[in-house]
What we know:
Layout: H1 5-13, E1 24-26, H2 33-42, E2 43-50, E3 53-64, E4 67-72, E5 85-90, E6 95-99, E7 104-111, E8 114-120, E9 152-156, E10 163-167, E11 169-172, E12 177-180, E13 192-196, E14 201-209, E15 215-219, E16 238-245, E17 253-255, E18 264-265, E19 284-288, E20 291-293, E21 298-300, E22 305-313, E23 317-319, E24 330-334, E25 358-360, E26 384-385, E27 410-411, E28 462-464, E29 488-490, E30 514-516, E31 540-542, E32 592-594, E33 618-620, E34 644-646, E35 670-673, E36 698-701
Parallel strand pairs: 1-10, 24-25, 26-27, 28-29, 30-31, 32-33, 34-35, 35-36
Antiparallel strand pairs: 2-3, 2-5, 3-4, 4-8, 5-6, 7-8, 9-10, 9-13, 11-12, 12-15, 13-14, 14-15, 16-22, 16-24, 17-21, 18-23, 19-20, 19-22
Amino acid sequence: MGLSSVMQERLDNSQIEFRKDETRVVDAAKIPLSLVQDASKFICQISFTVDNKAHRGTGFFIEIDKHKCLFTNCHNIPEDYKNIDIIVKLYKSKKIKIRLSNQYFRYYRFIDYLDIAIIEIKDSDEIINDIIFLDYDSNYIKGYDKYVNIDLFALQYPNDEIEVASGKIKEILNDFEFKHNINTEIGSSGSPIIILSKSFCKVIGIHKQGGKKINFGSFIGEIFKDKNLFNKEINDNYIIGEINISKNDIGKNIRIINSYEDWCGSNNLKMHEKDRNENEIKECIIEINKKRIKFSYFYKFEKEGIYTIKFSFNNILINCKGMFSICSNFIKLDLSNFNAKSNTNMTGMFYGCSSLKNIDLSNLNTQNVTNMSFMFYGCSSLINLDLSNFNTQNDTDMSFMFYDCSSLKNIDLSNFNTRNVMDMSFMFRRCSSLINLDLSNFNTQNVTNMRIMFDNCSSIKNLDLSNFSTQNITDMSFMFYGCSSLINLNLSNFNTQNVTNMRDMFDNCSSIKNLDLSNFSTQSVTDMSFMFHGCSSLTNLDISNLNIQNVTDMHAMFYGCSSLINLNLSNFNTQNVTDMSFMFRGCSSLINLNLSNFNTQNVTNMHAMFYDCSSLINLNLSNFNTQNATDMSFMFRGCSSLINLDLSNFNTQNVTNMRTMFAFCYNLEKLDLSNFNTKNVIFFKLWFMFFGCDNLKEIIKNDPRI
């Protein structure tokens, strides 16, 4: 660190002496007169008043890479340093007021071993013409050991006079902190500590704290290694939140930020990671009600109430994964001053913030984010969410993004660019208060997974997905599960040629009356279990085009379709199906059911297959091949309108359970079981086989156990 060229010229031409009328020297060797004269222009007194209490310290001016700056200690600046005036006074000069809100805070570190604030001075500031700025020279940064036991000087300004004191560095504690024995006075915090000879003057550090015998200072060289020091985008990089503490929370460890290992800064350091040694510096500064605390994931609050928490970052974050995960006491978060331009990962950023009611993301830059999965998972108190500024052009994963946002009533996604998204599974699951959801702008050309996408969106009445491109989707299971208010669902553009799983796809869509699946191509589907389960209002269902040749599981496929009157399954190729249990259970309005084309040779489970088909009058199962069936329990239970049932072709040699098989078939008069073989059925699994068959007059049988 050298002097300005003007000052250096004076130094070169001066004698090593000083004048007592210019300054007071305490325990000092001789110093250049020019230094004393110019010190009055690079040393200043800083003062401010808070709550009618005056505070005072010292500062000095330095130029770094053409940036003109005021250096001082953080504790010489008000804790709430925005919109506060400080008074800067040069020696024998008038006082100049600087409004800190108009300055650029370039550096602000106030932690265990560092206490440095850097404020950039504008060319328009009144003080600019009266200042001499020290030059910055990076050559001295390395090798602090050489400063031990050599004469050092502190230039002070404690009592309206410039004072010079000398001493030595006694111990270097780490890259930032050292102990010295320079005799300092009250008000000298923020003074420059220099090495001096006839040919040069270098600032090596800043005095931060005085004691009776040992004082502490901070080296400033390490700070200049930060390439982002003068990146204006870092300026005012912080997040403010409000946290609600109840009586039950008092004295407990309340999570205020998550310890998830991945969130880090642009230098890829885990900024919240516990120091591996004392030389590391934490990059996140936390203030609670304007009082700085030591970095911690948890905090014990002593009183109930609403607390304001501020997180300030001295670096641009590139990863915010899990940042506020499980911080369930937050009721408000404001990210309008958070710099996320370089951020690529926001996975689970607000996961489990279950008390969060307000969140300001209006200025959040998401242009480089590639993963937003789990971002708002479990934010169950959020009612409104404004994402109108979100740039999602690079996002590839939106799975679980709004999972369990159960209070969310409105969400505007009209600006979402989803062309690169591949996973939308669980995206809106349990958004049970959402009434309207406009996805007309969604580009889903690259999406492969829509599993459980709208699961339990129980308040949505209309959903138009006619723009959806689903050609690459392989999984649509549980996609509309629990959409119990859904009346209209437009799937006219769905291309399902690559889908392999449709399990529970429309499960419990209990309000929908018509469902047009005429364009569905299902040749790759293997699982259709519970597909229409609970569609209790469905009166028409045209699935005549469905190709089910590869389906192996149909259990509970139409379970609970209680309003369905007709069902045409004449095209169904069931040769690979192994499970038909509960398939038509609760289809209480079906009168006729033609299953003459059914190939059941591989079916092993027919449990409760026609349970409670209470309106079914005719049922022809003469083509059924039941050689591999093992379970026929509850199979026809509650078929109270059946009069005749011919099962003479049934091969039951492998069946082990027939319990309540025909129970409550009240009107059944004749039953042909002439081919039944119950040798493998345990006795108690024949119990109640004909219970409630009050009108059964004739049973044709050859098995004495029946």
